[in-house]
Design a protein that fits this description.
Layout: H1 2-38, H2 42-56, H3 58-76, H4 85-119, H5 127-158
Helix pairs in contact: 1-2, 1-3, 1-5, 2-4, 4-5
Length: 161
């Protein structure tokens, strides 16, 4: 039984590490995004977009880690999917968080391709309005993700029934 307790604690530790990866994204993303919007040259914007992409690679790793360790936590705490209302709600909000992140990643990829086109001297139609749209969407994304993460965290801490 002692080994099961240790494994449960180890799974929980890695769950917290996954959460830390998400928090890292939520803290570094808006900082890089602000620098991106203030950058004066396309070269600077391109470099910052590449940095954002690199940081964004944490997202799929964090999601996989959180999913696996979340299932492990449920196993070691003997919680079923519908056994605790707070857990069901947490899983639903986490799913929304994952989908929102995937959609934002796709938008960021489109913005990156647009910046690369502009840096090569190509001027696609409506490039400026598209860029403004992508920038606004990224800002909304960080606010939305932060709210969703805080909801998931509050459900985990307070466990309302």
């Amino acid at each position: 039984m002692e080994q099961a307790t240790f494994l449960g604690q180890l799974v929980f530790l890695f769950h917290l590490i996954g959460f830390g990866m998400i928090v890292t994204l939520l803290l570094s993303g808006p900082i890089l995004e602000r620098k991106f919007k203030r950058a004066q040259t396309l070269e600077a914007k391109l470099a910052l977009q590449k940095a954002l992409k690199s940081v964004g690679l944490l997202y799929p790793m964090a999601v996989i880690l959180l999913l696996l360790t979340g299932m492990g936590n449920m196993y070691y705490r003997e919680l079923g999917l519908f056994k605790a209302g707070w857990l069901t709600a947490k899983i639903i909000f986490f799913a929304i968080l994952v989908v929102n992140g995937a959609m934002a990643g796709a938008r960021a990829g489109k913005r990156g391709r647009l910046i690369e086109q502009l840096a090569r001297g190509e001027t696609p139609p409506k490039a400026l309005s598209e860029m403004q749209h992508y920038n606004k969407q990224q800002s909304i994304f960080y606010v939305t993700q932060t709210v969703l993460v805080l909801i998931v965290l509050a459900l985990a801490v307070f466990k309302p029934e």
